[in-house]
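Proteins fold reproducibly. Take a tokenised chain:

. . .
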Amino acid sequence: MTNIAPKTLEFLSLVSSAALANPFSEARDLFDTQIVQNYLGQKANRENTAELVAREAQRVVQEIIHPLGLKKFESPPKIKQIVADAALFAVFHKFIDEFDKYIELQNSTSGKCLPLPFAEKILTDLKQLNLDFPNAHVVALFFQMRRAFFFINRYVSGQSAPVRSLRERLWRSLFTHDLRAYLKTLHRNMESFPILLLGETGVGKSQAAAALGRSAYIPFDEKSGQFEASFLDIYLSANISEYPETLVESELFGHKKGSFTGAVENYAGLLGRTHLNGVLFLDEIGELSLPVQVKLLRVLQERMYSPVGSHEQRRFSGRLVSATNANMFNRIAQGEFRADLYYRLASDIIEIPSLRERFAAAPAEKRLLTERILNRLLGETSPEQIENSLELVLQSIPENYNWPGNLREFEQRVRSVILHGPDSIAMTPLTGRSQNADHDDTLKTAWESVRWTADELLAHYARSAYAKLGSFEKVAQRLELDWRTVKKWVHVEKM
């Protein structure tokens, strides 16, 4: 029996709790603060807390288990588990900087999966621990956790309470609330938990989906020192409304050569192209026709499907993430969407907060969001230029504006100020009026002043029709145009 001093055990217990806690939660911040203040004799500093804790945990664990490793560590199971958590925490944080460099490099290198440069070093450290599960699996989990932290921070920016809550929710959707259970078995079963993202137009549903998709579990091959796939290749996305209704089924499930006019070769479809451990994101899921809904329901129930024109049974092994800004209960009540499919899609519902909610919760969010957009748009430039542009943007935004277009509209405003100055677009606050009423007034003013060219008029009309009808196909039928033409006009940059 290995004896551990009470104070040392208390320290390791807190490290274990910190290791298992959601890194975006207040609980994690509390554990870190307690460890630093009570056991390291230093004030908590958000920038270096984890590093200080990991360094001390590594020293303590080495003294306790070296050189026998955890398998031969003689202690009650509960204490052994605490020591194991602390040991893994220490190894993980030892390689954080190297993981970050590798993620950045892979993120800028498409087309191939790069070898892990420090594979031998991290495997050597893990072998010394003599764990109860494969070292390669631990490397895969470490990589997933660091990617998740990286991409959730990148795609979901802001410091307001709604955004912090969203980041915490995304992490749980990836690792569940029980990291130990995920490490042991649940990482193999996440395909059973589809995710439905809800929120207004422009709130960033596709960004949240990208954070989830880029952060899926990818097995690591110990012999080659490589992961089985690049995280750039395990995520596929599609917007249902961008496809003609007649082609949605083929795009999703694929088709057999000759199954319909134009099917000149076999086509895998989105389900067939999704990686074994990957994520498929379907935006505007509410636009699916009822026959396609039936086929998708079978995929979620049985994991099986057949390409169009074929009886061949194929398995979908990825995880489905979908999104909509529609009121799904209204669509179900109107017979436009199947209730059984909705409940399959909605095993995990994540609501993306609107910009109104974010700004109301934290007025400083405006500045943080603007600064982030400017840094991305302007690239490497002087801090003075960023600050000047920042002040111009903030001065041009009315305090009580409701941002009906959310993040998309906000970024468009930032771009406009950069190009044309703060008075480039007159913004009318939405105070008690409907969004359509303000839009109609804008159309009327522009019409009466003969302000638009013919191209601008068509672009505005197409966008207005798309806002009301909700899909390129429906607008194309109403305006008697090809759907690709409608898509082109809807996406013409606003003038």
Observations:
- The chain has four domains: 6-155, 156-353, 354-430, 433-495.
- The chain is about 55% helix and 5% strand.
